[in-house]
Amino acid sequence: MAKFIISSCSFPLILFLFPFYSLTLTLIARPISSSSLQALNNNPNFDSEIALFGDAEAVDAGSYVNLTRASISSSGLLLRSKPFKLVDANLSNPASFSSDFTFSITPGNGDGLVLVLVPSDFSSTFSGKGPFGLDGENQFLGIEFDTEMNQNVNDLNANHIGVDVGSFVSVTVGNVSSLNLVLNSGEKLKSWIDYDASSKRLEIRLSKLGEPRPYNPITAHYIDLLGMWKDEDVYVGISSSNSNGSSSQISSVYSWTLKLRNVPKMHSFPVNPRGYLDEHGENSGVHKRMACPLSILAGIIFMTGCGALVSFVVLFLWAIIANRHTVFPAEFPVKPTDFRYEKISVVVEEDADGVKK
Questions:
Q1: pLDDT over 90 for what percent of the chain?
Q2: Could you tell me the pTM of the whole model?
Q3: Which end of the chain has less neighbouring CB within 10 Å, N or C?
Q4: Domains in the chain and their CATH numbers?
């Protein structure tokens, strides 16, 4: 039988260290409850029911959150404490989601930060160890904003966005340098993450704070989250860490929202217009595009004819009405006058010389 000997001097030491050990477990396993957290819940830039874990701290009266501290081996988690499901109870109405958040990362070669989805209560599994505190997790979806080039996971560079599924070897990567941005410059950046359940497409966008949402994503990936997690509860959080033990990088989050939308249930799936071919082997969309100008031309001709007809009718009616009101000069009546005819006798006399008088 093994014997355990505890010296009289070691027992007081255990009693002395026990409160610090309990405090460490509390930071890892339970959310921080303080007045700063209440101020964060009153901040309209964050969703309600937000919980903080590890070194995460609401600062400046709850205006933003520092996920890590300026010390090595620091890690923190900003967690949406209310989970959601990717499908309803009948497994017939899948859910899509959109999330956007504003953040900044100070210079250094830390892990950066990650938006993570896990099918379990992350508050009970967040260890604070390993990259982003995900040590031991193998069913997570992570969108990492990586500021360290780790050759062990085939990182592209120290300035990229990667989609991680169950491991930190990214299944797809977007080069942030192509956007003329640097993740760990300390500048405030904004990211949009959208998942469409019908197309199973995940898209990630990034820009400077204040600039419009980019039209094209920096990277995208097709993934069937419904097939991956089915009707399990899904928790969403933003995590950051300095797991390499040589960086004092600080990651801050200034806003974060998450919106869910359900795909409406249909009796049948619509026909793919690109896959439909008519009897001549041509795409029906081509005929529609050709018919559109002809329809416009026919409409113009029809409207021109209608306009000409209306103009003719108006002019015809105006001519009739105008003729009825034509003014002619007044004619004065002339009374008949009697003329008398009289015979006049003219006598011509001749003198002696034969001259007529």
A1: 26
A2: 0.63
A3: N
A4: 16-262 (2.60.120.200)
